[in-house]
Amino acid sequence: MKWPDRAPAGHFAYVNGRYLPHIHAAVHIEDRGLQFGDSIYEVFRVETGHFLDEAGHLDRLEGSLAALGLSMPVTRAALRLIMRELVRRNRIHDGLLYLQITRGAFRRDHLMPDGPSKPTLILTARASDPAAATSRLACGVKIITRPDERWARRDIKTTQLLPAVLAKTAAKREGASEAWLVDSEGFVTEGGSTNGWIVDAAGTLITRPLSRAILPGVTRATVLAAAKEAGLPVVERKFTVAEALASREAFLTSASGAAVPVVAINGESVGGGRPGPLTLQLQALYDAKSGRRSG
């Protein structure tokens, strides 16, 4: 069978104890991750061969598992070894590692199975283009807004991502890179795969506080800590699309890029249509706090 748009020949995946050619990696047809989205995931950024914010991602992974009543299929130490071996086999210097844990394969039933589960552990890795990432940081990105139509437990990093898929696809069709999701009260929650930030007229950093409404971004936490350590004014509160359009600066944070400038929202320029000085400062602060001390 020919699979379109798959990883190039020679790439490897990891499934339940086995390193397999990407094209042959598979799970059971009744895996609950496939049937019900009964699974969680994490994305790790690899830069110059090192994992960024690794402990934070592993902590969040364990928190998501606990929220769904799942246990780690292997120890944290063993998982770190698996991650590094997969990156080595795929010769990843700069890229992303995707990790997914499902409840496992059972006869299809909405009810969760009684007794201990046999989780499915899946890892894949792919290289990224450092030049493209540098361009996004230097030039910024355009975004759109969409209603937030997701479920109520967005703090759990589950694979139930269809609303985010639809929003990000709509963004691409409009020539944008991301969609900010807006709640029923008109406040921005977060992006389809990013956390959102603005800088107000007084130079204060503003980002939505943690709750069940948003994912506790690991990169968000590192940027927040770096900003506070640098003595920058920071407020965790809700903000509207109108506030974002009137802001001095706006940016995104995620595992794939810290402090990515937003230069336009719904076709309207933000911050003069170019990356602002505070966003650029936060990029440097993040590098110092996360990237350079990883390994």
Keywords:
295 residues, alpha+beta, D-amino Acid Aminotransferase, Chain A, domain 1, D-amino Acid Aminotransferase, Chain A, domain 2, 9-stranded mixed sheet, 6-stranded antiparallel sheet, 29% helix
What topology emerges from the helices and strands here?
Layout: E1 12-15, E2 18-21, H1 32-36, E3 39-47, E4 50-51, H2 54-67, H3 76-89, E5 95-102, E6 120-127, H4 130-139, E7 141-147, H5 162-173, E8 178-182, E9 188-191, E10 195-199, E11 205-207, H6 218-229, E12 234-236, H7 241-246, E13 249-254, E14 257-265, E15 268-269, H8 277-289
Parallel strand pairs: 7-8, 7-14, 11-12
Antiparallel strand pairs: 1-2, 1-6, 3-4, 3-5, 5-6, 8-9, 10-11, 10-13, 13-14, 14-15
Helix pairs in contact: 6-8
What would you report as the Rg, rounded to the nearest angstrom? 19 Å
Total domain modules? 2
How many individual helices?
8
Q: CATH H level of the largest domain: which superfamily?
A: D-amino Acid Aminotransferase, subunit A, domain 2
Number of strands: 15
Spans of at least 5 consecutive residues with low confidence: none
Describe the global form: globular
> How large is the share of residues in beta strands?
25-35%
Helix content: 25-40%
